Amino acid sequence: xxxxxxxxxxxxxxxxxxxxxxxxxxxxxxxxxxxxxxxxxxxxxxxxxxxxxxxxxxxxxxxxxxxxxxxxxxxxxxxxxxxxxxxxxxxxxxxxxxxxxxxxxxxxxxxxxxxxxxxxxxxxxxxxxxxxxxxxxxxxxxxxxxxxxxxxxxxxxxxxxxxxxxxxxxxxxx
Length: 174
What we know:
Blueprint: E1 2-9, E2 12-17, E3 31-34, E4 43-46, E5 55-59, H1 66-78, E6 84-89, H2 93-103, E7 108-111, H3 117-121, E8 125-126, E9 131-132, E10 135-139, E11 145-150, H4 160-168
Parallel strand pairs: 5-6, 6-7
Antiparallel strand pairs: 1-2, 2-8, 3-4, 5-10, 8-9, 10-11
C-alpha cells in the first residue's frame, strides 16, 4: 500500500509505503540491529524483548540531520529510565552508535538498514528516499499502541506533549 500527500519536505511530496497504524491496534513486532556503545558487532533487538514495559519509538529520517538530532536529544531530556526509548532509522548501526556515544545518550538506537520490514509494517517507509518518515509511537506493556503521530513535514518536530501524556497514562488503559 502506498500513500501520497502525507509526507513532504520543502514542498516536495513523498510517497509513504505501508498502512498507518492507529491507537488501540496491536503494535507489529519487529527485529532490527542495535550496536550499544562498547560493543564491536551489531546484535538483534525485537519489540517483544521489552514486553511489559512502556516503549516510545522515535522514528527519524537520519541521525545525521539537525532536526533528527534535536528530536532525539529532546526525548533524552523528557523521558526517564522507566520508559524504553528506541530511536529508529535506516542509518547503519555504526553511525547510530557514534552519535549515542558522542551525546552520552541512555536509550537504544535501532537500525532497519538491512530491510524495509519495520518501515512497511509501521507505515513509515519513504519510497523515494528509502528512509523512514518522522513518527512517534507509544506502545504499552501489552503491546498496544497508545499514541501514534505521523509527522507530515519532515523538517518539523513531533508533538512532544502528546507523546509524553500517552507515556504517563497507566499501563493498559485506553
